[in-house]
Design goal:
6-stranded mixed β-sheet, 41% helix, single chain, UDP-N-acetylmuramoyl-L-alanine:D-glutamate ligase, 16 helices, globular, Protein-Tyrosine Phosphatase, Chain A
Length: 437
């Protein structure tokens, strides 16, 4: 098998679609002697912020000398981004070998007529790889929800729920309470869970499930004085009272946006709890250094060109709102928006605030079957936004053409913002950085 054949096989599983449940994953893991039971894990769920928190945790733990595996999704440019150890993506040879072994294991396993999905197979690949590479810790990001997500086969040292908002309502429920209960499915008996800011009634759900499972529920720390450096894009500074210290501690992150400070507070809370669970203890200096070096691409990622270009993978109303807050603090002449979105998202709610900021909007379609066409987006937003269609909107069939059009329209003091989907963000990054995707 070649690397191209391995990737073709894996992505050939995508038409199977989404199938909730743990049985297929457990059956496949059994063929590899249950590696998920042999590694220490941190399990991260939530509507937004999962990837950023995973990146921050990894950076702190690596700074402290741990060997850390990280499993996230989706990837932006290369499939191997999903499975990394100490920041190094899984190699092509490892992907080939694990794909061949998983193919063989699927042939041997009893899946009761339901073939494992893409996400189930890749989750098993990550767990097998981390166990065989003898990581000290593996950080696992849920794909969707939590309770029936393939990653929920683990019993972690620590669980984290970053945020709760409406998403994937056809799968997870049509209210924050129902979605919270699905996310809370990662809470295991006796396992502490760190919870980010959420509505009080949602927090009460976590508290109740925590009581039932004797799992401590820990609210994320709060920050004090926040100093932002948006105009030079060097990052953000904030102070935190750490238990056991008389004075507040100063932290810096290079990630932009108020929400990233909150993600950092979630990561710090998790690290402080890990200090009670794991030797060796992680020092404050290692937390400071680790957070300062943490990066997570395509989340308010700045290209310091003229005009300035921003890529953000915001793909639901709450993440778009965070991007809007960031844009409202910038100084620019005009905002040129390149926008593409998946058809199963809340398109009208996503468009509402970001469209009102833009002087010109270029609608495009990422190269994904799930993507909405520009015409579909136009139909949904026409009554609210299209006062004069010819003045504010245009259509580009491909992401590359959309970026070219934006560059032609934009002047030196303008900003080009590319957003609406992580798939759009990844495709745009590949084009701008001239990489094969």
């Amino acid at each position: 098998m070649t690397y191209e054949q391995a990737i073709q096989y894996l992505f050939g599983l995508q038409p199977i679609g989404i199938k909730f449940g743990l049985q297929n994953t457990l059956t496949l893991l059994k063929q590899f002697s249950d590696p998920h039971q042999k590694i220490k894990t941190i399990h991260v769920a939530g509507t937004n912020g999962k990837g950023s928190v995973c990146s921050m945790l990894f950076s702190i733990l690596q700074t402290a000398g741990f060997k850390v595996g990280v499993y996230t999704s989706p990837h932006l440019i290369e499939f191997s981004e999903r499975i990394c150890i100490n920041g190094t993506p899984i190699s092509k040879n490892e992907i080939i070998g694990l794909t061949e072994r998983i193919q063989w294991a699927i042939g041997k396993g009893d899946f009761q007529g339901t073939h494992p999905t893409f996400f189930e197979v890749v989750t098993v690949m990550a767990l097998v790889y981390f166990q065989e590479q003898d990581v000290d810790l593996a950080i696992l990001e849920t794909g969707m929800g939590g309770r029936l997500d393939a990653t929920n086969v683990v019993c972690p040292l620590l669980a984290i729920i970053t945020s709760i908002d409406l998403e994937h309502q056809q799968y997870l429920g049509d209210s924050p309470d129902k979605i919270a209960k699905e996310k809370a499915g990662i809470i295991k008996d006796g396992v502490p869970v760190v919870v980010g800011p959420c509505q009080e009634d949602v927090y009460q759900i976590f508290e109740e499930i925590g009581r039932q499972k004797r799992a401590p529920v820990i609210k994320a720390l709060s920050s004090l004085h926040i100093r932002k450096s948006h105009q030079d894009f060097s990052g953000q500074r904030f102070e935190v009272f750490i238990p056991g210290f008389d004075a507040p501690q100063l932290f810096t992150i290079c990630m932009l946006g108020q929400h990233q400070i909150q993600n950092a507070l979630i990561a710090l809370t998790a690290i402080l709890k890990l200090n009670e669970l794991l030797p060796p203890s992680i020092a404050i200096s290692q937390m400071v250094k680790g957070l300062a070096s943490a990066k997570w691409p395509a989340r308010i990622e700045i290209y310091k060109t003229q005009p300035l270009m921003i890529i953000d993978g915001a793909h639901n109303p709450s993440s778009i709102n965070q991007l809007v807050l960031f844009l409202e603090e910038l100084s620019y002449a005009k905002l040129i928006l390149v926008f593409g979105v998946m058809k199963d998202k809340e398109i009208e709610r996503i468009c509402e605030k970001i469209f009102s900021l833009a002087s010109h909007i270029i609608l495009t379609r990422p190269n994904m079957p799930r993507a909405a066409s520009p015409e579909e987006i136009m139909d949904l937003v026409s009554e609210k936004f299209l006062v004069d269609k010819s003045m504010r909107f245009s259509i580009a069939p491909t992401v590359g053409e959309a970026i070219s059009s934006a560059r032609e329209i934009a002047e030196e003091n303008d900003v080009i913002c590319i957003t609406g989907s992580l798939f759009l963000a990844g495709e745009a990054k590949a084009i701008i950085e001239k990489k094969k995707r």
